[in-house]
Amino acid sequence: MSKEVLLKIEDLKVNINNNEILKGLNLEIKPGEIHALMGVNGAGKSTLVKTLAAHYDCEVTGGKVTFKNKDLLEMDVSTRANEGIFMSFQSPVEVPGVNNSYFLRTAMNAKRAYEGKEELDAMQFLKLVKEETNKFDIDRKLLQRDLNDGFSGGEKKRNELVQLLMLNPDLIMLDEIDSGLDVDAIKIVANVINSMLDGKKSILMITHYDRLLELIKPDFVHILSDGKIAKTGDYSLALELDEKGFEALGINNANS
């Protein structure tokens, strides 16, 4: 018996600033699968994950997206998060004046309320954070500061990992989380992601680098070109791309 489908994208068309970026993209993700998106800048990778996360830049002009057999495009951003979608941004926004710990506990309790669970008090929250961050040697002092305010690139990425661990989503979308990180930091990212793989959670990750894919082996590698998936394969496709480049694989390098 085949697995149910977690996310199904059919003929998705998306504009940003009146420019068509996604031009009829199709993708299906089942529970427990790891999918990697690769492609030149402008191919539509970030536009896809931003659209799934309900980013205000993205205007859907056609197509259909279902998540857990529900119409994703009818959900607002908070409903999508509460349904189990998590987006790790390339450059998380800085929010001075909003305590990081308060922000995260509020997000967790919003999701718990949505699921009909009791809210966590401050002590329960801190206990959970301590348990999770201790596993991966992540500095909890980040939570004492304002949300991403004055954070280095590496600190922002670590903070995203804390959010990921605590919110425990079903679909994890990573938009170049390895960008600008050293080898040790990439290992922490991979350790966190791999620890969450339980056969149910799925991953959709964007990366230009093979080093993250070595640590988080994808089941499927998709190469985007001009707003559509031009080629799909397994991990060996990423290796081939790294060795030969886009042109050798017959991928159109035109930016969208």
Concise description?
This protein has 256 residues and is an alpha/beta fold. It has eight helices and twelve strands.
What does this structure look like?
The protein has a single domain (7-249), classed as Rossmann fold (3-Layer(aba) Sandwich), CATH 3.40.50. Helix content is 35%, strand content 27%. The protein contains eight helices and twelve strands. The protein has helices at 45-52, 77-83, 100-114, 122-136, 153-167, 183-196, 210-215, 235-244, and strands at 7-16, 19-29, 34-38, 59-67, 70-71, 85-88, 95-99, 146-147, 171-175, 202-206, 220-225, 228-233. A hairpin with a 2-residue loop joins strand 4 (59-67) and strand 5. Helix 5 packs parallel to helix 6. The longest helix is centred in the middle third of the chain and has 15 residues, at 100-114.
